[in-house]
C-alpha cells in the first residue's frame, strides 16, 4: 500500500471510477457522498405498486463507452448488459410510421453507408450530403476544434435542417444529453467515429436497474481497511494548508488529505472551493456550462406498442421510448414503457 491518502468527493459513476483506479494502484482513499446512496444521478429505486425497479433517468449506452464497461467488469455486473446485434435503431414518426436505421452486414463502414441509403426518413439529397460529410469525418486527415459547436460545424458543411433533425440531433441527445449548439465538435466527432464507424458498433442497455449494476461497489469498499466510504456526508469546504488539503463536512468534522479528487457536478464547485481558486482560468468553463438532465416518464398500457427494445421518437418532446417489458422480462398482464428525454 502506497503511503498516501486521498479524498474522493462524490460517489457517482466518476467517483466510483476514481476509486477503482486507486484500488488498482493500492492507494488508500476515503469517499465522501452527500446522498445516502451511491451512483449520483445514475440510480434506480423499487416501486412496490409496479413491483419493478424505476430508473431515475433511463440510459442507453454506446459500445464506445469502454471505460464505463470496465467499471462494470470490475464489479462483476457487466454480464447484465444486453447488446443489440450490430447498429440497428428503430425510428417512429409522429404519424406512427416506423423505419429502421441499421448497419447492414458488410465489411468496414460499407454496411452503415448502405443502411443510410435505405433510411426512408431522409430525402435522397440529404443522404448524399450526409454521406459526403461522414466520409470527410472518417478520413485520417480530418480535424476540427472544440471551439466550434457541432451545429455550426454541420451548417458550414452543407448539412440541411432535415438531416440535422433526423440524424445528427438524435446522436447528440443520446450520447451527450445536449443540444448540438452546446456540444464541442472535436469531442463529438471523436465519439461519433468510435460509436458508429468503428468495430462492433451497437447500442447497449442494462437488464438491471442502475443501482443494482453498481451495488457490489459498496461491498468492495467495506471489505478493505484501506478504503472507506462516508454516505450522507456532505463536503462544505476545501482548503489548502501547506502540503495538505483540509476537508470540512456538514457535521462539523475536519479531515486532512494528501490529494483531493473532485467527482461532483461542476455547478457545485463554487460552493466548496476557495474564491481565489475559482478565479483561475482553469475554472472559466463554469461560467458557460449548461446542464441537461435525463428525465423519464413511465407508462402502463394494456396493449403492446411495439416489439423492439427501444426506438427513437421523431418530432417529439421525448427522444426515446424503452420497452421495459421486453428489456427486463416484466411478466405482468400489462405493458410497461418509459419515455425519456435526454435534454430535460
Q: What's this, in brief?
A:
The protein has helices spanning 13-24, 66-75, 110-117, 124-138, 150-155, 161-175, 185-196, 210-214, 216-222, 269-272, 275-278, 324-327, and strands at 2-9, 27-32, 44-47, 52-55, 61-62, 81-83, 88-92, 98-102, 203-206, 227-230, 235-241, 244-249, 254-257, 259-262, 295-301, 310-313, 320-323, 335-341. With 344 residues, the protein is of the alpha+beta class. Helix 1 (13-24) crosses helix 2.
Residue windows where pLDDT falls under 50 for at least 5 positions: none
What's the number of domains? 2
The CATH class name of the largest domain reads Alpha Beta
Radius of gyration: 22 Å
Fold blueprint:
Layout: E1 2-9, H1 13-24, E2 27-32, E3 44-47, E4 52-55, E5 61-62, H2 66-75, E6 81-83, E7 88-92, E8 98-102, H3 110-117, H4 124-138, H5 150-155, H6 161-175, H7 185-196, E9 203-206, H8 210-214, H9 216-222, E10 227-230, E11 235-241, E12 244-249, E13 254-257, E14 259-262, H10 269-272, H11 275-278, E15 295-301, E16 310-313, E17 320-323, H12 324-327, E18 335-341
Parallel strand pairs: 1-2, 1-14, 2-10, 7-16
Antiparallel strand pairs: 3-4, 5-9, 6-9, 7-8, 11-12, 12-13, 15-18, 16-17, 17-18
Characterise the protein shown here:
- The mean pLDDT is 89.
- Helix 1 (13-24) packs across helix 2.
- The chain contains twelve helices and 18 strands.
- It is 30% helix and 26% strand.
- Strands 8-7-16-17-18-15 form a six-stranded mixed sheet. A four-stranded parallel sheet has the order 10-2-1-14.
- A hairpin with a 4-residue loop joins strand 3 and strand 4.
- The protein is globular.
- It has two domains: 1-84 and 206-291, FAD/NAD(P)-binding domain (3-Layer(bba) Sandwich), CATH 3.50.50; 88-203, Guanine Nucleotide Dissociation Inhibitor, domain 1 (Orthogonal Bundle), CATH 1.10.405.
- It has 344 residues and is α+β, with helices and mostly antiparallel strands.
Amino acid at each position: 500500500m502506497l503511503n498516501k491518502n486521498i479524498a474522493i468527493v462524490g460517489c457517482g459513476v466518476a467517483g466510483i471510477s476514481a476509486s477503482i483506479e486507486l484500488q488498482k494502484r493500492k492507494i488508500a482513499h476515503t469517499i465522501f457522498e452527500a446522498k445516502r446512496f451511491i451512483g449520483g444521478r445514475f440510480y434506480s429505486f423499487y416501486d412496490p405498486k409496479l413491483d419493478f425497479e424505476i430508473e431515475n433517468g433511463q440510459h442507453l449506452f454506446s459500445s464506445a463507452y469502454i471505460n464505463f464497461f470496465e467499471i462494470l467488469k470490475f464489479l462483476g455486473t457487466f454480464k447484465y448488459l444486453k447488446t443489440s446485434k450490430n447498429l440497428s435503431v428503430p425510428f417512429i414518426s409522429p404519424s406512427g410510421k416506423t423505419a429502421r436505421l441499421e448497419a447492414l452486414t458488410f465489411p468496414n463502414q460499407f454496411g452503415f453507408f448502405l443502411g443510410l441509403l435505405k433510411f426512408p426518413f431522409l430525402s435522397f439529397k440529404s443522404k448524399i450530403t450526409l454521406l459526403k460529410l461522414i466520409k470527410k469525418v472518417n478520413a485520417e486527415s480530418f480535424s476540427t476544434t472544440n471551439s466550434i459547436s457541432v451545429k455550426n460545424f454541420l451548417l458550414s458543411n452543407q448539412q440541411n435542417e432535415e438531416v440535422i433533425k433526423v440524424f445528427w440531433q438524435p446522436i447528440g441527445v443520446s450520447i451527450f444529453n445536449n443540444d448540438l449548439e452546446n456540444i464541442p465538435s472535436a469531442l463529438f466527432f471523436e465519439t461519433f467515429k468510435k460509436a458508429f464507424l468503428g468495430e462492433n458498433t451497437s447500442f447497449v442497455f442494462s437488464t438491471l436497474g442502475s443501482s443494482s449494476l453498481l451495488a457490489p461497489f459498496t461491498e468492495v469498499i467495506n471489505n478493505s481497511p484501506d478504503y472507506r466510504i462516508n454516505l450522507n456526508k456532505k463536503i462544505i469546504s476545501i482548503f489548502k494548508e501547506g502540503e495538505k488539503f483540509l476537508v470540512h463536512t456538514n457535521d462539523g468534522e475536519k479531515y486532512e488529505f494528501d490529494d483531493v479528487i473532485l467527482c461532483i457536478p461542476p455547478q457545485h464547485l463554487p460552493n466548496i472551493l476557495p474564491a481565489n481558486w475559482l478565479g483561475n482560468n482553469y475554472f472559466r468553463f463554469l461560467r458557460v456550462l449548461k446542464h441537461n438532465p435525463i428525465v423519464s416518464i413511465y407508462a402502463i398500457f394494456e396493449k403492446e406498442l411495439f416489439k423492439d427494445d427501444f426506438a427513437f421518437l421523431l418530432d417529439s418532446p421525448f427522444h426515446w421510448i424503452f420497452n421495459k417489458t421486453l428489456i427486463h422480462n416484466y411478466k405482468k398482464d400489462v405493458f410497461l414503457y418509459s419515455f425519456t428525454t435526454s435534454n430535460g
